[in-house]
Amino acid sequence: MIRVGVNGYGTIGRRVADAVRKQSDMELVGVVKARPDYRARSAVEKGIGIYAVDMKGLEAFKAGGIGVKGTVNDLLQRVDVVVDATPEDTGATYKPAYEQANVRAIFQGGEEHSLTGVSFVAQVNFNEGVNKKMVRVVSCNTTGLCRTLNAIDSSAGIARARAVLARRAADPDEVGKGPIDAIVLDPATVPSHHGPDVQTVLHGLNIVTMAIKVPTTHMHLHSLIVTLKRPSTKEQLLDTFAKTPRLMLVEAKSGVKSTAHVMDMAREMGRPRNDIYEAVVWKDSVSVVDGEAHMFLGVHQEAIVVPENIDAIRAVTGTSSRDDSMRMTDAALGIAHR
Ligand code: NAD
User: Fold this and answer.
1) Can the peptide bond before residue 307 be classed as cis, meaning omega within 30 degrees of 0?
2) Can you give the pTM of this predicted structure?
3) Owning domain of residue 287
4) The predicted structure's pLDDT at residue 338
């Protein structure tokens, strides 16, 4: 059993912790929680061990009547791998502690690529993470782009890719960021950071991205335009997508006309927390005109990186091949495996 700890129990950390508990080759030793709030109580009810950030945090948990098993440093002594799901740029401050405890570490997309030197999307570059001390799972948008572009590249080759990203303004519980009534240039300069981030995984890909923020809390939506190297048809691309792992085809003509409908579909599927782990491609939008492929791509920001974190744990511990790991992860999370 791979002993896993999760540092940071927010949007991503809670999902990764639950996903770890579903793997037959992993044990969740505990999670690091900053505050004794309702999420901490819910974790305790699930039987998850709680660790405080520091001694001050430990006292706050005691005062809040929630039992803790120690601090983050105690947790690091008890695990093989830590998944760092702390806020953007906070992960980097923990790197020395992870090194000192001699644990392998998985960071998230809010950290710089240079922190680990390896940015990870399982189906694209699993082997780059094998037996590494530290790996960074890329952000939600980069994960969606990498899965989709890698599929197109393997089928028709990519001369260049261009994407305009409409990003959710905040996660559902980030009430401090709203309410808002604007479309925000994010940033006004081109390219946005997403294109260079894709290149940390799909090395050498010609890609430029632009991004805006829109007043919604669930999902990002990309308009993707790809110049193909080889002649291809819409049917060939759809066939490739249908065979691509962790990519879901939806149809507006079947009623999935918006991100809200994707979330509603997740509820109907009985997915935990309404999570869509797959990159979502609208079948109706896929077209090829003058050697250019076009499509709409949806990304459920809270969920898409969860399977990647699980595969990254197996990669850094060298315990499974890419295909075995993806098969186990998909089975445990209820993702249709291809
Ligand atoms: P979050 O704010 O929801 O959760 C972070 C948690 O860490 C919070 O519970 C916070 O209290 C806790 N925390 C704060 N300081 C801490 C510390 N010093 N030690 C331990 N815990 C601490 O953040 P998130 O959205 O889960 O993001 C985590 C990482 O995942 C970031 O790198 C982010 O860029 C990345 N990411 C986020 C999303 C998303 O859409 N939310 C998607 C993909 C990747």
Assistant:
1) no
2) 0.98
3) 140-299
4) 74
Nearest one of 240, 213, 92 to 157, comparing CA atoms = 240
Answer for the pair 229, 291: CB distance below 8 angstroms, yes or no. no
13 lines ligand 1 (CB under 6 A): yes
Task: Answer yes or no: is 241 within a domain.
Answer: yes
Residue stretches of the chain with pLDDT short of 50: none
CATH number of the domain that residue 145 is part of: 3.30.360.10
Task: For residues 144 and 134, state if they share a domain.
Answer: no
What is the Cα–Cα distance from 148 to 241, expressed in whole angstroms? Answer: 8
Q: What is the pLDDT of residue 180?
A: 84
- The answer to whether position 294 is within a domain reads yes
Total domains in the fold of the chain:
2
d(CA 168, CA 135): 26
In this structure, are 165 and 65 located in the same domain? no
Assess whether 57 and 96 both reside in one domain. Answer: yes
Residue nearest to atom 15 of ligand 1 (CA): 86
Task: Report how far residue 251's alpha carbon sits from residue 256's, in angstroms, rounded to the nearest whole number.
Answer: 6
Q: Report CA(13)–ligand 1 centroid distance (Å).
A: 7
165 and 179 together in one domain? yes
For ligand 1, is residue 34 a contact (CB within 6 Å)?
A: yes
Determine the pLDDT at residue 12. Answer: 98
Whole-number pLDDT of residue 125: 98
Strand, coil or helix: what is 133?
A: coil
Q: Determine the pLDDT at residue 55.
A: 96
- Among residues 82, 140, 226, 313, the one annotated as catalytic is 140
Give the Å distance between the CA of 30 and the centre of ligand 1: 16
- Residue with CA at minimum distance from ligand 1 atom 16: 86
Q: Is 7 in the pocket of ligand 1 (CB under 6 A)?
A: yes
261 and 287 both lie in a single domain: yes
Q: Say what the pLDDT of residue 178 is.
A: 84
Residue 271 CB contacts under 8 Å (≥ 6 apart), including other chains:
334
Q: What is residue 179's predicted lDDT score, i.e. its pLDDT?
A: 79
